[in-house]
Amino acid sequence: MVLSCEEVREAMAKLVGAENLVTEEEELKHSSIDRYRKYEDISGVFTQPIPAAIVKARSTDDIANVLKFCNENGVNCIPRTGNSALESMLESVKPNHIVLDGSGLDRVIEIDEYNMQVTCEAGVVLEDIENQLRAKGLTTGHSPQSKPLAQMGGLVATRSTGQFSTLYGGIEDMIVGLEAVFPNGEVTRIKNVPRRAAGPDIRHVVVGNEGALCYITEVTVKIFKFMPENHRFYGYTLDDMKVGFEILREVMVAGYKPSIARLYDVADAAGHFSNFQTDKCVLIFMAEGPVGITAATGAGIEEIVAKYKQCEQVESQLISDWFDNLNWFPEQVAEEREEIVATKNMGFTTEIAANWGQINAIYEAACKRVKVEVPDITWVGGHSSHSYMNGTNLYFVYYYNLKCEPTEEIHKYHNPINKIIVEESLKRGGTMVHHHGVGKARAPWIKDEYGSSFYILKTLKQAFDPNNVMNAGNIIPLEFLD
């Protein structure tokens, strides 16, 4: 039997206190979606199930008690911290669900400078902990554009990566230990050690689970020395993406570790570098760390780029200034909403990754299909911003004119573009998502993504969440669990 909205609210009030329950209609409506449906949100039109309540957790015990109730009563629970999700992760496929908000778990528990790690609760904003660390000459090394908004639990749950990932890695490389609560109320802690070989690395059952297996309540991540006085920036214009990808590949294969290695195509570069770019691609690097390392990294990059005569270097200060204004604060989110209303023009990104041998083919094929198959496209392009020894990622960026009702935008534009990019990546052996997570937007292709290893993923879901109350439909559609 499905509990009614009122029954869910009454139960939640008993568990966490009425003062920690949000039931105001407008806030519930806005909490029924994430930024994947931002045009519906801006238009005040909500097509997805509205939560019965937003439950504000204040402790791990709150999380455990709420999850246990949901598990025993078939109430779908959507875990949330920073509310910066992008892939329909915060939508519910079942009615009378709850949003379990952990932003109140916001204590920095310990900054351990000797062992070079920081422990904090899931609701700590990344920007806040980063500011505390930088005041001590330290950094997490994690810097997604959402840093002013995102919170630590959500970053770990979505297997986030940041703008300095080419040096520091993704969140999975930074995580030391964590605490998580499973739907039966079981509180589990993975201890903080530098490495261990005691069976499978169970951190990775939790990291990237997108709230579909458990709720992350506490995390410990590595920290690093922060030496901004040694930062070096390099920028170049060039004629085509294929050469840019080859330069990125050479830098990585040579063993250099710039903190930033980015390549923008002509369309995407026009919006970022109009002060020096005209019909050119843009390649940028940043070296950081001890002075000897940054000098060697910079010299290596310059030596590699010098082999490509089409590359013209630009003043390093231009790159430094650009990067200082890259992050998204609440003000930028508000400005974007106003711009969409004024221009009726919408922009999104879809990010994938592939090996060096296929990335340019994916880029060309996806851009070509989007231009041909999707109406009202203003432009489509992209950039690479996270590179590895054996490949790189690619952000597809696209804008389209909104010639439809708010309820039609997803089906006319956003989903078809997503579908094209996912298909072209999977067709060539790439991954359909690099770091935004699967959510429900890319879940239809999860079997294609995993192939025969889908057995492992499905078995994890069935074992840890047999009643499917943890963000049902996220990562794995309901019909794939039958």
Outline, from the CA principal axes?
globular
Radius of gyration: 22 Å
Distance between the termini: 20 Å
Low-confidence stretches: none
CATH class of the largest domain: Alpha Beta
Oligomer: single chain
CATH topology of the largest domain: Uridine Diphospho-n-acetylenolpyruvylglucosamine Reductase, domain 3
Please give the CATH architecture of the largest domain: 2-Layer Sandwich
Strand content: 15-25%
Tally of alpha and pi helices: 18
Cofactor: FAD
Protein name: FAD-linked oxidoreductase
Binding site for substrate: 337
Site (Important for enzyme activity): 262
Describe the structure in brief.
The protein is built from 18 helices and 19 strands.
Task: Name its key features.
globular, Uridine Diphospho-n-acetylenolpyruvylglucosamine Reductase, domain 2, 18 helices, Uridine Diphospho-n-acetylenolpyruvylglucosamine Reductase, domain 3, alpha+beta, 21% strand
Description:
The protein has 482 residues and is of the alpha+beta class. It folds into five domains: 5-103, Uridine Diphospho-n-acetylenolpyruvylglucosamine Reductase, domain 2 (2-Layer Sandwich); 108-225, Uridine Diphospho-n-acetylenolpyruvylglucosamine Reductase, domain 3, CATH 3.30.465.10; 228-324, Alpha-Beta Plaits (2-Layer Sandwich); 330-437, GMP Synthetase, Chain A, domain 3; 438-465, no CATH class. The protein is 36% helix and 21% strand. The chain has 18 helices and 19 strands. Strands 12, 13, 14, 15, 16, 17, 18 and 19 form an eight-stranded antiparallel β-sheet that branches. It starts with a helix and ends in an 18-residue tail after the last helix.
